[in-house]
Write a structure and sequence with these properties.
Blueprint (H helix, E strand, L loop, with lengths): L14 E3 H15 L1 H11 L10 E3 H15 L3 H26 L5 H6 L1 H11 L7 E6 L5 E7 L7 H13 L2 E12 L8 E11 L3 H8 L7 H18 L8 H11 L20 H7 L4 E4 L4 E4 L1 H6 L14 E5 L6 H6 L4 E6 L15 E9 L4 E8 L4 H6 L13 H49 L2 H8 L7 E13 L2 H7 L2 H22 L2 E6 L2 E6 L8 H16 L13 E15 L5 E5 L1 H11 L5 E4 L1 H7 L4 E11 L3 E11 L4 H5 L13 H15 L1 H8 L61 H8 L5 H10 L1 H4 L1
Parallel strand pairs: 16-18
Antiparallel strand pairs: 1-2, 3-4, 4-6, 5-6, 7-8, 7-12, 9-10, 10-11, 11-12, 13-15, 13-16, 14-15, 16-17, 18-20, 19-20
Helix pairs in contact: 1-2, 1-4, 2-3, 4-7, 9-10, 18-19, 23-24, 23-26
Length: 791
């Protein structure tokens, strides 16, 4: 078998209708899924939807087939054969089932009439460039199928289509192999010519085979006798006085009873002389032409003579006035006889037409070639090839110019209606595609709007507002509120440009927002440099204190990766926590906000305003919620809190059961086999920053590119990590310092300070804490944790 080298290159740029690309898309989706089609079309660089009646470049189809071979890891002949099988089923589903079934009673007749089907479809699809088929029967029962196409490399589609037709319509299986492939010299344009050897195998079911074997092709004498007796009995019962029937009446009854089996031996009867005069024939067939082997015109119809007066010249050559458009063969008798079963389309030559015709579109004729062997003449029975009334008017012709028996009259009128329906269908398809695109964009915008709304409000609150429901305020008996602000923020604003402040706050808040996802806490709002977070609201959880505490530790780490635009050093923040009940609800209609109310909010604000730089200030209730939970706390002692009097507060130093990466939501490294205090890790990081300067900050910022991993808690939906039990109670240390006050909730983040610098600690203040009896590592860690305070 001669295998063809596969190539998607074609000699010239051609077009095909979107029906082909739609079929290919449907095949990929049905067989391999939507994801494969999306990947395929993205790699091929083509659109998602194709209009059925719109013309596209063949290059689009070629790219789709090429990428399909790469993605599916299949050879081109396998992909094309599967496409051919699917294309046949796709045509049936698209409404061409009955049309295909009526092409022929056998596979040979079906293939023989494929060109006629393409010719009919070209009336509606005027840009269609279909392949051509020619079939020959062999003595051994096989067939040679000749395939001609302008598109190289697509011949493997043919076995898929013909095999599916044989199996579906004729209940048989075939095998096809390429026996020859060449550039057809007889055809213009150097089209590809592939010859297939088709071997047909019967695939009848046992039931149908037995039924067919029980039905002979001709009636036996015994069957004829039974039929005659049955006919006599029937006639006897129908008539009181039976009349003897003639012999041929009985035979006709038998033929009718046998369903025409005897007619298989029919032979036509021809008259001895032609009973029609020449003038009547030329008027009855006004567009026929008779020519000899040398293409000399011997006879022509009256209307074709009127349009092409040159045909009235004696012995004029037909190829001087006409060219063959389909099939694309050279204008010789041997070439024409080779395609004698095809419909021939001839077009007049402009330079040979009368002056009145040179401004009009050329006339095209479509018809059948009939070889008259006795006369050695070729008869061309044709009709004008006109697709619409508009084309009829362009050539200044009328319906009366076409013979009354010619169905071209009806085809023009029917196709005019068909073209109008196609135009409406095309417009409807375009509108449908526009609506699909608009719907897709609307869905994307809707998702953006919902994401924006859920970023401003809790999800269940946003859903209630979308449904038009009223959101009732809710009371939460236990939650933890956090406030933070930037130390000396007012001084920074007075020195820096506004854009520098925006960059600094944006960099810091992006890191904080990421931590809210890690620890699943709710961000309430930001006012200037102030950041407010709550745990246990709007979804109550028992681990609200641990979540907010770990979030606070993460804030301290993240803030050290943000540069102070004035000094160039990492910024410092204060953090305050308080645990207690709150009332939460939506306030306002324009730009509604989910706000918290209650003394818990005020107390958390006081903890932040009375805190120290880079310290997490805990109220007594917050400390109680974190006690025995694996956190290290330092006793600050009693301090005076505005509006609250004296309060015994604490500082959160670190988490004894979680690593730095776990708190920040980074993937845990394998090298972190042991766990150590998060505060000690933070302190060592600060030493690195001090030694490396800006390079250290850049190395820390590069960590943000790692994926976010949510920290697991006891009430998380997934299985939490088994936390190691605390070996000792939270260590309590004495540490004193001055605090600043805040006027109100609205101005709680102002940097107005009372008295001297409240954050300046004397050497004597720190020394007692450092001189307490403790291990060497603990003393070193506490000294590092106060490094910024000492500065």
């Amino acid at each position: 078998m001669g295998q063809a080298s596969y190539s998607f290159q074609h000699p010239r740029s051609m077009d095909s209708y979107g029906f082909i690309n739609t079929c290919l898309k449907s095949l990929i989706i049905d067989k391999f899924g939507e994801e494969t089609w999306e990947k395929l079309r993205n790699q091929a660089g083509v659109r998602d939807t194709f209009m059925t009646f719109e013309v596209y470049k063949d290059d689009i189809t070629m790219r789709l087939v090429e990428e399909a071979c790469k993605i599916l890891e299949l050879s081109p002949d396998v992909v094309l054969k599967q496409f051919g099988e699917y294309f046949f089923e796709f045509c049936k589903r698209s409404g061409y089932d009955h049309m295909l079934r009526t092409l022929g009673g056998s596979l040979f007749e079906f293939i023989e009439n494929l060109d006629a089907l393409h010719s009919y479809l070209s009336l509606s699809y005027q840009e269609m460039n279909a392949p051509s088929f020619r079939v020959e029967k062999n003595d051994d029962g096989t067939m040679h199928l000749h395939y001609y196409s302008d598109r190289r490399g697509l011949c493997h589609i043919v076995p898929g289509i013909i095999g599916a037709v044989a199996k579906d319509f004729f209940n048989s299986e075939i095998s096809m192999e390429i026996v020859n492939q060449m550039e057809e010299e007889e055809r213009t344009g150097k089209k590809e010519h592939v010859v297939f050897l088709v071997t047909q195998k019967s695939a009848f079911s046992h039931k149908r085979r037995s039924k067919l074997s029980a039905t002979p092709d001709t009636l036996s004498l015994q069957d004829m006798e039974k039929a005659m007796n049955k006919t006599r009995n029937k006639n006897y019962h129908m008539s009181v006085c039976p009349v003897k029937k003639k012999h041929w009446d009985t035979v006709r009854g038998i033929v009718k009873l046998g369903k025409g089996k005897l007619l298989r031996g029919f032979e036509p009867v021809y008259p001895k002389t032609l009973c029609i005069d020449l003038m009547t024939f030329c008027n009855a067939f006004p567009f026929h032409i008779v020519f000899d082997e040398e293409l000399r015109v011997k006879q022509a119809g009256v209307n074709i003579q009127k349009i092409v007066p040159g045909l009235q010249t004696v012995s004029i050559h037909l190829d001087q006035y006409f060219t063959i458009i389909h099939p694309e063969v050279t204008f010789t008798i041997p070439s024409v006889r080779k395609f004698i079963n095809s419909q021939f389309v001839l077009r007049t030559k402009r330079n040979m037409m009368p002056e009145s015709w040179k401004s009009r579109p050329m006339l095209e004729l479509r018809g059948q070639m009939v070889w008259m062997d006795s006369l050695q003449y070729m008869l061309y029975l044709a009709s004008p090839l006109l697709r619409s009334l508009h084309e009829l008017e362009e050539r200044q012709m009328h319906i009366s110019d076409i013979a009354r028996h010619d169905v071209t009259r009806d085809l023009i009128l029917l196709n005019q209606q068909r073209l109008a329906e196609m135009e409406l269908s095309n417009q409807l398809e375009r509108k449908k595609e526009e609506l699909r695109i608009l719907s897709k964009h609307l869905e994307e915008e809707k998702k953006k709007t919902e994401a924006l709304l859920c970023a401003m409000l809790p999800k269940h609150v946003a859903n209630q507002l979308k449904e038009g429901k009223r959101v009732e305020a809710g009371e939460f008996k236990a939650c933890t509120v956090l406030f933070s602000d930037v130390v000396t923020f007012t001084d920074i604003c007075s020195v820096c440009e506004p854009i520098q402040i925006v960059f600094m706050l944006n960099s810091m808040y992006l890191k904080f927002d990421r931590l809210t996802t890690v620890h699943d806490v709710y961000k309430v709002e930001t006012i200037g440099d102030a950041y407010m977070v709550v745990g246990g609201v709007p979804v109550p959880v028992s681990s609200h204190a641990e979540r907010v505490a770990n979030f606070a530790l993460g804030m301290i780490i993240a803030a050290r990766e943000v540069t102070n635009p004035v000094t160039g050093n990492p910024i410092q923040i204060r953090v305050g926590l308080h645990t207690g009940p709150v009332l939460a609800g939506v306030v306002g209609e324009k730009m509604p906000r989910y706000c918290l109310f209650g003394d818990t909010v005020n107390t958390a604000s006081r903890m932040e305003s009375h805190g120290l730089p880079d310290k997490i200030h805990l109220s007594p209730s917050a400390y109680g919620a974190l006690k025995d939970k694996g956190f290290e706390c330092i006793d600050r002692g009693e301090i005076e809190v505005k509006g609250k009097g004296k309060m015994h507060t604490y500082f959160l130093a670190g988490n004894l059961t979680a690593t730095d990466d776990e708190i920040m939501g980074y993937p845990v490294r394998e090298s972190d086999s042991g766990r150590e205090s998060a505060q000690s890790l933070h302190d060592s990081r600060m030493d690195t920053l001090q030694r490396q300067g800006p390079r250290g900050v850049q190395s820390l910022q590069s960590r943000d590119r790692r994926p976010t991993v949510a920290m697991k808690y006891s009430d998380s939906p997934t299985q939490p990590h088994a936390k190691a039990p605390s070996k000792s109670h939270p260590s309590i240390k004495d540490l004193t310092g001055k605090t600043r006050d805040s006027q109100s909730y609205g101005s709680l983040h102002s940097d107005q300070q009372s008295g001297d610098n409240p954050y300046r600690l004397t050497q004597a203040t720190v020394e007692p804490a450092a001189s307490e009896p403790s291990s060497r590592e603990t003393r070193k860690r506490h000294t590092k944790s106060n490094f910024c305070v000492l500065l």
